[in-house]
Design a protein that fits this description.
With 171 residues, this protein is an alpha/beta fold. The protein has a single domain (6-167), classed as LmbE-like (Rossmann fold). 39% of the residues lie in helices and 17% in strands. It has helices spanning 16-30, 55-67, 88-102, 117-129, 157-167, and strands at 6-13, 34-41, 74-76, 106-110, 134-138. A five-stranded parallel beta sheet has the order 3-2-1-4-5, with helices on both faces. α1 links the parallel β1 (6-13) and β2 (34-41). α2 (55-67) packs antiparallel against α5 and α3 (88-102) packs across α4.
Length: 171
Amino acid sequence: MITPERVLVLAPHTDDAELGCGATMARWLDEGAAVYTAVFSTTEKSLPPGSKSYRIKEECELALDEIGVPQENRFIYDYPVRELGYHRQEVLEEMIKLGERISPDFVLVPSGADLHQDHTVVHQESLRAYRALTLMGYELPWNHITFSAQAFVVLEAAHLKRKWAALTKYG
C-alpha cells in the first residue's frame, strides 16, 4: 500500500479512531503523512455520575498525543452520543468543511457493517461528503456480527505499542 499524503480519520466518538485504526495512523505519521482526526461526540452523557464533563475530551487529547497527531490537526465536536442521526445534516456539513480545509486524499471511516447508530451515520455521511476520494473502513469488533475485511495495513510492533499507549489514556 502506498502511504497517503493527507489522511482524515473520522471518529463518531472519542476512542473510536484509536481503537479502530490507531496503529495505522501511527504508521502513516511515521511515513510522513499528514493525519487529521475529527471526533463528532465526546460522549459526555455516558460518563459515570460525578465525572468532570471535559474528562473524555482530555483523555482523547492525551491519546492523540501518544499516536502523534499534531494538535492543530484535531477537530473535536460535542454532538450528543447516540444522537448523531438527529444531527445528520450538521455532521455532513462539518465533513464538507473539513474536506475543503484539509483536502485529504484518503479518509478512514467506521465500517459500513458497523451496527452502532452513530457509527452508521458517520459512515453514510462520509460516503456523501467524500465519494470522489479513497475511503477505507475500520472495524470495531463488538459492533459487528461478522468480520469481512477487504484490505489490511501491515504494521510493526512500534505502531501497536503507540496504539496501546493511546488506549491507556482512557479511564
